[in-house]
Design a protein that fits this description.
The record marks 6 as: Discriminates between blocked and unblocked aminoacyl-tRNA. It catalyses: an N-acyl-L-alpha-aminoacyl-tRNA + H2O = an N-acyl-L-amino acid + a tRNA + H(+). Keywords: Cytoplasm, Hydrolase, RNA-binding, tRNA-binding. Belongs to the PTH family. This protein has 188 residues and is α/β, with parallel strands linked by helices. β2 (35-36) and β3 (44-51) form a beta hairpin. A 4-stranded mixed beta sheet has the order 1-5-7-6. It has a 3-stranded antiparallel beta sheet with strand order 2-3-4. It has a single domain (2-184), classed as 3-Layer(aba) Sandwich (Rossmann fold). The chain has helices at 18-30, 69-78, 112-121, 142-146, 152-175, 177-184; strands spanning 2-3, 35-36, 44-51, 54-61, 87-92, 100-104, 127-132. The chain is built from 6 helices and 7 strands; from the N terminus they run βαβββαββαβααα. The longest helix is centred in the C-terminal third of the chain and has 24 residues, at 152-175.
Length: 188
């Protein structure tokens, strides 16, 4: 499981870092201390533990978002995992703030972190926990919007959103994609 974000305290509260926030919640639940690796794992914080009764590797690239693919490829190779076993936790502009969706594969929707991972993994066929951050207001550039901190109103709900996304990730591990989608996605 990889939580996407940009490194450093200046980005910590950005919308683009919500995937990293969810990963930190999962690490807390699993009692995993994320640490910088060596060799192929040097460009990520990672740790191993158990979630939903399964062994997991939790990781956060230490690169900027648009360079996430290299560290992810290094972790997949080091742990001898196929890209199809990868779960990426990330922000999603095309989902309303506070909604969480699960899927496998598909496009990147302009998300440079996903594009980098797809290129390095050689496939788009990996699982995704998509955390809704909503669309930018008015004519604001989406690239600027994702690099801004959550608004005051959003921050009041952010902790709940992170917990819901972590719950969705655990449900995905426990039940598999289709059953987890049936449980996580709202009935319409």
């Amino acid at each position: 499981m990889v939580g996407l974000g940009n490194p450093g305290p200046g980005y910590a509260g950005n919308r683009h870092n919500v995937g990293a926030m969810v990963l930190e919640e999962l690490a807390r639940r699993a009692g995993v201390r994320l640490a910088a690796g060596k060799g192929a794992r040097a460009r990520a914080l990672s740790g191993e533990g158990r979630l939903a009764g399964r062994r997991v590797v939790l990781a956060q690239p230490l690169t900027y978002m648009n360079e996430s693919g290299g560290p992810v490829r290094g972790l997949l190779d080091y742990h001898k995992l196929a890209a199809e076993q990868l779960v990426v936790l990330h922000d999603e502009l095309d989902i309303p703030f506070s909604a969480v969706r699960l899927k496998r594969g598909g496009g990147e929707g302009g998300h440079n972190g996903l594009r980098s991972i797809s290129r390095s993994a050689g496939t788009k066929d990996y699982l995704r926990v998509r955390v809704g951050i909503g669309r930018p207001p008015g004519r604001q550039d989406p690239a600027d919007f994702v690099l801004k901190d959550f608004s005051g109103t959003e921050r009041k709900e952010l902790e709940l959103l992170v917990v819901e996304a972590a719950d969705a990730a655990e449900t995905l591990l426990e039940l598999g994609l289709e059953a987890a989608q049936n449980q996580v996605h709202p009935r319409t």
